[in-house]
Amino acid sequence: MEISHAGMYNRGVILFSNTPDNNYPRSAMADIFLNMLKLLTKWKPDWLYDAMPYIYLVAGLATIFHFGTPAGYGAGALLLIATLLIWIMRKENRSFKNKLR
Q1: In what helix (H) or strand (E) does residue 64 lie, and over which residues does it extend?
Q2: pTM confidence score
Q3: Can you give the residue ranges of every domain in the chain?
């Protein structure tokens, strides 16, 4: 089966492929890995979706405490900011959905 250009389009996800016009050929295993990564970024199981802010919180605190450098503090602070933004956006989205009902 021939696949053109960057890949094929399946359910809103562009799946990567090793095409003849591609200057960077990849192995079949790399194609499978990239396709799975693309699908996981598009859809997440509910348990993972609900746990993501807590994972970011723990990762941010661990980064701050483990790395005592300014880069570690910056990376940890970004993870903590991501945690707060996710909680705020989810709260606003859920309260908006409750108002519509």
Answers
A1: helix 46-66
A2: 0.55
A3: 7-42, 46-100
